[in-house]
Amino acid sequence: MNNLKLILLKNTEDEELEIIKENYSKPSVERFVDINKDKFWNYVTETEDVYFYKAYIDDVLIGTVQCEVYDGILYLALVVFPEYHSKGIGTDIVKYIINGKTGLNFNEICVSVDEKNTASIRLFRNAGFKCTGQEDELINFKYTI
């Protein structure tokens, strides 16, 4: 699992937030991540039951993980920065979460993936997620613990 660790983003003054914002504005990320840039960062740092993690491998920031937990369901959004694609990092992050290493309490994981994001679709299918349907361009997946 590479030397993966997730560290909670605690406030909008975080020194690495600019690096995250730069990566979120790259075309290969921006086309799949739809956020309200004015309010999003406050939302993920101030909202109860929302956990936004910075993902590191060997102390290098390689992506982010957003988890929202409601009624035993963890809603997941995962971004691996473009230069780290196709290295198995997304798989490692999903395994980390499935194995309970975040300390969050849940019995299901749900994720919605853009139908054009074939790499993410493959990632979640290979990790054992089951397709539960599609709404517009989003394919919904669920994993039961």
Defining key terms:
145 residues, alpha+beta, 7-stranded mixed β-sheet, 36% strand, globular
Question: What is the first-to-last residue Cα distance?
Answer: 20 Å
Strand tally is 7
Please tell me the overall pLDDT: 94
Structural class: alpha+beta
The count of helical stretches stands at 5
Helical fraction equals 25-40%
Amount of beta strand: 35-45%
Return Rg in Å. Answer: 14 Å
Largest sheet: 7 strands, mixed
Low-confidence stretches: none
Secondary-structure element string: EHHHEEEHEHEE
Question: In what order do the strands lie side by side in the largest sheet?
Answer: 1-2-3-4-5-7-6
Outline: globular
Write structural notes for this entry.
The protein is built from five helices and seven strands. With 145 residues, it is an alpha+beta fold. A seven-stranded mixed β-sheet has the order 1-2-3-4-5-7-6, sandwiched between helices. Helix 4 links the parallel strand 4 and strand 5. The chain is globular and about 40 Å long. The relative contact order is 0.16.
